[in-house]
Design a protein that fits this description.
single chain, 13 strands, 9-stranded antiparallel β-sheet, 432 residues
């Protein structure tokens, strides 16, 4: 059975439906027993609950959610339930460290860190750590494309062959079909030779053309538009379109036109393996021998437009709403209202309750994306009906019984916080 890069396959784990960035095998991490640390973000007006808050004990009866729309009030009692649920998942799935943030306009906020950022030293997780965000990069790449749509430089229904030569079915596959994962192109991260090349030398650098070459040697999986199939090849192509039509490197365009206007000061598109400090160490079993390794300094160039970016909690809090609404924090537009409506057209996938639009998913009402690549996982989602944001950051991508650790935490958290909107992606099928 050959190895596959789960991380690049998984970014969203809608059963191989939606994807991320990863590499195989079995093995369990030897994480320290998770412990929680109440934290606040400097300069952010966050309400943070400790395990034993001062003052009178609140009623044991949970505050009811608003049917179909709301989230529970984040009382100290609810916070204690969340603490216990996160610890339980971390213990069961052997997750070294986690950061969880929940923000609402009227029901309170919850920001906690659990466990360790570095297993070798015991350094605790803190909310100011930079983390690799894997396939959440797709949300930035597609946003860059949509800005070019607004500028009239590209059209969503243009064929990719207009911009990039040599693409199988390039005269038929549209930019829209690349962005909503309905192109039919084989994902380069499923290529055996690619997996061997990466796992044998995870610090090497890949070019976008090298990644495409791993894909284009395979026949198309189906004719464009026929069905949903998550493919990282799609995003490499869209990254090249952004570069060609903007005249800028992708990372430079994203920095100037997305990160700066949105005020995302701690989000970067690395050119190599550089990693802003402070950051957590990341642990994976996506290795050539299946043993757990420290993947912190692996070169994410193999993810490029599909999964190379780095961010942290406070930035992702802002990005969740900005992505879901198309509105900048200052009230301006990141993309036009009309283009945002196109982004949020989300045909269903084969997974009940899950739909995928232009570089964005909707899972039971939560809109956003998740990310996974060796050593790290993330989940950044926004619930428009309650104007609530959830961000989860982890320093492992090692699955537990076939489930992504970020998905396990997302489900446990939303079961408590938004019982009418439980983030319930099913387990992905085993990687080949």
């Amino acid at each position: 059975m050959s190895a596959r890069l789960r991380g690049l396959r998984r970014g969203v784990t809608v059963a191989a439906v939606v994807g991320s960035l990863t590499v195989p095998l079995a093995g369990a991490s030897a994480g320290a027993a998770p412990a929680s640390t109440p934290t606040t973000l400097a300069g952010s007006p966050l309400s943070v609950f400790t395990a034993d808050p001062p003052g009178p004990t609140p009623s044991a009866s949970p505050t009811p959610s608003l049917p179909g729309t709301g989230v529970r009030e984040l009382t100290p009692a609810v916070a204690r339930r969340l603490d216990a649920a996160v610890r339980d998942v971390m213990r069961e799935a052997d997750i070294p460290g986690a950061t969880v943030g929940i923000w609402t306009p009227d029901k309170g906020n919850y920001v906690r860190t659990f466990g360790v950022a570095d297993k070798s030293t015991g350094r605790r997780m803190t909310p100011d750590l930079s983390m690799r965000i894997g396939s959440e990069t797709k949300t930035f790449t597609v946003t860059a494309l949509l800005q070019l749509v607004d500028q009239g430089k590209v059209g969503l229904d243009d064929p990719i062959g207009k911009y990039v030569d040599g693409v199988p079915n390039g005269n038929r596959i549209t930019l829209r079909q690349l962005a909503d994962m309905r192109s039919g192109l084989f994902s380069y991260s499923d290529n055996d030779d690619f997996v061997k090349a990466l796992t044998s030398d995870p610090e090497r650098s890949f070019t976008p053309q090298e990644l495409l070459d791993y894909s284009f040697g395979h026949p198309v999986l189906f004719q464009p538009g026929r069905k949903f199939s998550y493919s990282n090849t799609n995003l490499i192509l869209l990254g090249l379109v952004v570069e060609k039509e903007s005249g800028q490197r992708l990372g430079d365009f994203i920095g100037q036109h997305i990160l700066e206007p949105a005020g995302l000061k701690h989000t970067v598109f690395p050119s190599g393996a550089e990693f802003p400090n402070p950051h957590a160490q990341g642990y994976t079993n996506q290795t050539a021998d299946g043993k757990v390794a420290n993947a912190t300094d692996w070169n994410p160039s193999w993810g490029w437009a599909a999964g190379a970016m780095i961010s942290r909690l406070d930035d992702l809090r802002v990005w969740a709403r900005t992505l879901a609404t198309g509105e900048l924090p200052d009230g301006g537009r990141l993309v036009s209202a009309a283009t945002q409506r196109e982004r949020l057209k989300m045909p269903p996938t084969m997974v009940p309750g899950a739909a995928y639009g232009l570089g964005i998913f909707d899972v039971q009402g939560w809109i956003g994306h998740n990310g996974s690549l060796p050593g790290y996982e993330s989940l950044t989602v926004y619930l428009p009906s309650a104007r609530a944001t959830l961000v989860v950051l982890l320093n492992t991508d090692i699955t537990h019984k076939g489930q992504e650790p970020a998905t396990l935490l997302g489900r446990a958290i939303t079961t408590i916080v938004s019982p009418d909107h439980v983030f319930n992606l099913p387990a992905a099928p085993a990687a080949r």
